[in-house]
Task: inverse folding
């Protein structure tokens, strides 16, 4: 009997883990907290972030009705906690205790599309709140009565796969805004690549994973499954499926039984039809595929050779030169660019605080290619997208403090200058002579490329702000190169700094990333 009880509790805890996050991480004790609330939400925040907290409360109330429209959930009050000292952007909703946590950042990365960061979280994370409150019904209620929120979380995890929760939230951020990840070709690039090579895995492989290649995550295939069901069966389909699944929450097949009951179609048939439809929509040139999955990032060609980052399924990220590994690196190229000039390779490294889990850093490191030595340049800062001055021993980087600023350091880590634009956020910048070319976000998250005068701390746009998910600036003479969305593909474009004339520079089927130009030749990574 004791073994049965133990195994039952272990099973509950295992399934609950995906929907409940209990941790013992702490903020620093001298951080002063405040809160604002109304009848629907409470926002808890560091007292230096009052304006941002009020903005978040307003956003949540603005999106409360449209996000809940397709469920009509009986919503309880939710608490949102703003964590302002983390270096990586993120957000989640969880039970035990019931809350949502937001790690406040702006668009330092194009992964979340071109929505303003808090707007994206206000839709995506609030959709999770709606899901959780709608799921607390019928026989699933008993999990809550017997084991509290941990029991509810466990039965929810049994009753629906994770792709349902995340795919539905991505659908909401896409359908209820003029951006969202569903509109971004970056989001679906890996899935598209597998399909065009006839290598898309089975549904079981997507759920369980494989060791031979990189698969699209559950956000991606979940979004396409959720969206197609809405398009075919109407706005109430997932509401009805979840209501039916909640009646038999201890049955691991309850979700698939409910899907068949509501739609009249076995789920695996629906999955295959979704794959076939996407394959037809994405039909294009066949691609050559490597036998082993490999990632490349940030090719930089100069007079000394071709440098780039590389990793595969059996290695960490490493810096390579002309095919030879120079050094393994603790680098996260998906969240920040790197730079190399005059044999100096600069990259940010994410580092934890030695004591407090809710405080960490992204400091700059320098690897000397010629000597093989490495040193840490900055200490206890949050820096992204470093750019080395073409002639001086100076580094420009976006720095996240309470707001985003543009900071300039020498090679010894001494801060030389800080630039902040009024009512705008610099999300990325590179040196252009002694000034800067930058991607700047306005309050709605709209992006524009332009010049930043470092002395006057002013911005002159070279094109009008828009939702294109531009990223990864590179300069060559008077031409700035960058990634841009173009008819469902990420390709390389360039712009003349003086005339603002646009040029198309690549024509890939899926994506072209990380542009770099040397001697009139364009180097980039393609999917």
Result:
């Amino acid at each position: 009997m004791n073994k049965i009880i133990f195994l039952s509790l272990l099973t509950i805890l295992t399934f609950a883990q995906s929907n409940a996050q209990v941790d013992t991480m702490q903020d620093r004790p001298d951080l002063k907290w405040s809160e604002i609330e109304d009848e629907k939400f409470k926002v808890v925040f560091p007292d230096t972030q009052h304006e941002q907290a009020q903005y978040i409360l307003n956003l949540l109330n603005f999106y409360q009705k449209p996000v809940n429209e397709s469920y009509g959930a009986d919503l309880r009050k939710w608490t949102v906690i703003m964590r302002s000292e983390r270096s990586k952007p993120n957000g989640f909703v969880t039970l035990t205790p019931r809350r949502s946590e937001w790690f406040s950042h702006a668009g330092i990365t194009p992964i979340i599309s071109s929505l303003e960061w808090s707007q994206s979280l206000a839709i995506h994370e609030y959709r999770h709140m709606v899901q959780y409150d709608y799921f607390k019904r019928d026989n699933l209620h008993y999990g809550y009565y017997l084991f509290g929120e941990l029991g509810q979380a466990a039965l929810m995890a049994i009753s629906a796969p994770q792709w349902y929760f995340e795919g539905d939230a991505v659908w909401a951020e896409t359908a209820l805004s003029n951006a969202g990840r569903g509109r971004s070709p970056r989001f679906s690039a890996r899935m598209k690549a597998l399909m065009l090579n006839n290598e898309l895995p089975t549904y079981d492989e997507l759920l369980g994973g494989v060791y031979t290649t990189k698969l699209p995550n559950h956000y991606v295939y979940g979004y396409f499954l959720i969206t197609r069901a809405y398009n075919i069966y109407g706005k109430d389909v997932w509401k009805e499926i979840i209501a039916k699944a909640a009646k038999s929450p201890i049955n691991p097949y309850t979700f698939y039984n409910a899907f068949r009951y509501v739609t009249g179609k076995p789920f695996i048939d629906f999955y295959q039809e979704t794959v076939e439809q996407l394959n037809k929509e994405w039909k294009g040139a066949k691609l050559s595929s490597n036998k082993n999955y490999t990632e490349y990032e940030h090719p930089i060609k100069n007079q000394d050779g071709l440098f780039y980052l590389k990793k595969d399924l059996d290695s960490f990220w490493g810096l390579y030169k002309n095919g030879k590994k120079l050094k393994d690196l603790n680098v996260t190229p998906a969240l920040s660019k790197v730079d190399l000039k005059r044999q100096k390779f600069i990259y940010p490294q994410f580092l934890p605080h030695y004591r407090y889990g809710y405080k960490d850093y992204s400091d700059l490191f320098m690897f000397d290619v010629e000597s093989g030595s490495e040193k840490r340049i900055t200490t206890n800062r949050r820096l992204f997208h470093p750019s080395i001055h073409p002639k001086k021993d100076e580094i420009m980087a976006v720095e996240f403090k309470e707001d985003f600023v543009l900071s300039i350091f020498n090679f010894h880590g001494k801060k030389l200058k800080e630039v902040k634009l009024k009512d705008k956020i610099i999300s990325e910048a590179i040196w252009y002579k002694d000034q800067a070319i930058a991607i700047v976000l306005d309050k709605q998250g709209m992006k524009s490329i332009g010049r930043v005068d470092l002395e006057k701390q002013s911005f002159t746009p070279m094109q009008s702000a828009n939702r294109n998910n531009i990223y990864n600036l590179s300069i060559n003479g008077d031409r700035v190169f960058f990634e841009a969305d173009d008819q469902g593909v990420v390709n390389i474009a360039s712009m003349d700094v003086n005339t603002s004339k646009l040029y198309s520079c690549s024509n890939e089927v899926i994506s072209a990333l990380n542009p770099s130009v040397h001697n009139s030749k364009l180097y980039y990574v393609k999917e």
Summary: The chain is about 30% helix and 30% strand.
